[in-house]
Write a structure and sequence with these properties.
Keywords: Biological rhythms, Signal. This protein has seven helices and eight strands. The protein is of the alpha+beta class.
Length: 268
């Protein structure tokens, strides 16, 4: 009887340790946590690194590089949607001062090109909980709808309708601060903050249905935007970077939440 009680108590404590004790740090319900399917073993696309490796950063860079093609196709067994094309429901923009002012958003976005991403650098500092990743994308072709209003240098801009945007030679630098969270008794990396800096070498834009469908004004504005594309992007760097960071953080956390670090950041 006493023994049975002890076992029951021990089981309850184990249960609490596994599912109860992680609650405050994770902030989701037990059901959510158990719904997340963790990888049992490292698949081909997940190459482990050793934390004590003096070339850890280079190893982590290769790990991400190796992961991109698999992520591009999607990994249904861990609920990771395909990245190619990448679907984003919305990218909002808000900038109220300066030569370019704009409010509104691009929505129902399909971006082709993320599968061609190359990891160019990585820095992983487990003590400071800092992770940085450099990514180069040779080309991104975007089709979406837009709803924007504002002023681009000397011209007003107002419209909503379909948009096409092509970006060339996009260099991004993603800086994150992360936490380690316990999920089902294992640890996963969770990105708490992210900032995204980027540089674009070429951009072409076509916004349809500007100015209520006035074709002459629409053509004028598109030509003007294309002629001054890089300057406009420079003006929009901060709000675009913020918008990207919201989206990338979600995407990365979704993938990382299924990848316990015991599979890819080995202690020994
Ligand atoms: C992108 O980079 C390639 C290789 O460096 C170069 O040939 C090409 O001209 C660049 N494109 C733009 C738009 O700058």
């Amino acid at each position: 009887m006493a023994r049975a009680l002890t076992i029951a108590t021990a089981t309850a404590i184990q249960y609490w340790l596994l599912f109860g004790a992680v609650l405050p740090s994770v902030g989701t319900t037990n059901a959510d946590q158990r719904a997340i399917k963790l990888l049992d073993q490292a698949p081909d696309w997940l190459r482990p690194c050793r934390l004590k490796d003096p070339e850890l950063n280079s190893c982590v860079k290769d790990t991400f590089q190796n992961m991109f093609p698999a992520l591009a196709k999607g990994i249904p067994e861990i609920h990771v949607d395909r990245f190619e094309p990448l679907y984003l429901s919305r990218l909002s923009l808000s900038k109220g001062h300066g030569p370019v002012t704009i409010t509104g958003s691009f929505y129902d976005i399909l971006a082709h090109g993320p599968s061609k991403a190359k990891a160019t650098s990585a820095v992983l500092d487990m003590d400071r909980r800092v992770f940085e990743l450099g990514v180069f994308l040779p080309e991104i072709r975007i089709e979406s709808d837009y709803n924007l209003q504002g002023k681009v240098l000397i011209l007003p801009l107002i419209g909503n309708g379909p948009a096409k945007v092509n970006l060339d030679n996009v260099t991004t630098s993603v800086s994150t601060r992360f936490e380690l969270r316990r999920l089902q008794g294992r640890q996963v990396l969770h990105i708490a903050d992210m900032t995204v800096d980027f540089d674009i070498q070429g951009m072409t834009v076509n916004l349809e249905n500007l100015f209520n469908g006035n074709k002459v004004l629409g053509r004028t504005l598109n030509a003007f935007v294309n002629k001054n594309a890089l300057e406009i992007v420079k003006e929009l760097k901060d709000p675009l970077g913020e918008s990207f960071s919201v989206v990338f953080k979600d995407i990365m956390n979704n993938a990382l939440s299924h990848m316990p670090i015991d599979l890819w950041l080995l202690d020994q």
